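pls ignore typos typing on phone
alpha-L-arabinofuranose + seq
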Amino acid sequence: LYGQSSVRLETPQQEQIISRHIYGHFAEHLGRCIYDGFYVGEKNDSIPHSDGVRKDVIEALKNLNIPNLRWPGGCFADTYHWKDGVGPKAQRPAIVNNWWGGVTEDNSFGTHDFLNMCELLGAEPYLAGNVGSGEVQELADWVQYVNFKGESPMSDWRRKNGRQEPWKVKFWGVGNEAWGCGGNMTADYYTDIYRKYATFMSDWTNGSGLYRIASGANSADYNWTETLMKKIPSGLMKGMGLHHYAVINWDNKGSATQYSEEEYFKTMKSAWFMNELVEKNIAIMDKYDPKGLVDLIVDEWGGWYAVEPGTNPGFLYQQNTMRDAMIAGMTLNIFNNHARRVKMANLAQAVNVLQAVILTEGKNMILTPTYHVMEMYKVHQDAKLIPISLQSTDFEFNQKKIPAVSVSASQDKQGRTHISLVNIDPKKNNKVRVDLGSVKAAKISGRILTAENLRDYNSFKKPTTIKPVVYNKAKVVNGGAIEVDIPAFSVIVLELI
Ligand code: AHR
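k done
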């Protein structure tokens, strides 16, 4: 049984660049993401590290061209007091991680550790400020501490703590999930709070600019978006957030690996809902900001399931199967195709938490199917979007339907065209005819990510069950078109030169 779809590469009316920041990540003080994930401590002599940060993790993320990393939360951000995380480590006070497992942390991974790690990664830091339980002055001080070159109490303190030059952090979140763990605020109340905080977060960068990001809506809360867009001047807000997770049911999320076809369908439906969310948010933004001064920042997304059996329920540790590869491929196609407004996104989360790209266990590290999708798609970073029109057959379950195929395309600076195609149908191949329009295809190469079974994953015993391999079955057909036969639950990225 085959699905049959068609896609046409269009000529753009206006050039759009797919911001590399769409391929961003998120690292919260949550479970084993920071401690025992990224950071194993300076004194660790069994795992190779650089100032306590795992070298294998750094190399793997560099290989993704990781563009940015959001920290320290999440919900944790609105409990975090940055001043407790600088200065001599032995003198730092502890913090109880109230949101995630109630564990006591020693604050040994703080501002310097994070920002220096971003330098190692070649990623731009995205700091989420504490608005919920913090003070305006505390956040204003943080900006001055990390960004001010001249003499001031905060920059002098930074130098005393060992860092001469400012880090010039551009991306700043003004709170997180202000409608929930960030303070249970109403949209109106948060709007006023936002304006106040943003005002005192001075731009100390000497002109390179502070990019303030508002805590955005919880999934389909369009009133939140509407209120922020109506009431916050664009000069104070460069980005507006949006959080949406692919989840079956918040009260019964289901296993990450042992899921039924119905659960698979429901997860994919929830992931596909991102398309509607992005389009409806953009429509509201276009109404209040026709010049496009404010960007849409999807600073949390990904699949969320029950934790792995036997692990701490507060640590959100889950395995990652081909279902996750499907979420990643489809969602990144959605973001690419809405590159006009979506300028940043952060997959939740980078290491050992939720839809992680990397899992660690002692000395060992594995790359998940999601990692491989991110790696295959990195060719789209900062490339020119090629708009598409797509007719896809449906993936149907119990008379409910979602499109089986998603596609996005771009042209990089060397003139190479890349087309990423995803078929989420768990049973049927899909034959996709790609009408190339004005794109030439003298040579076609490609890679595919698939597996024998939908529920396959990379484990510490079998770390390479799922990995991309060469795909050379794209056929040139009449009239400037190619045909791609995408196997069930597969991601293909083609290169045309
Ligand atoms: O990513 C896990 C949590 O999900 C974050 O801390 C929070 O912002 C969201 O609810």
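The first helix runs from residue 55 to 63. Residues 28, 73-75, 176-177, 300, 348-349, 354 surround alpha-L-arabinofuranose (CB under 6 Å). more later
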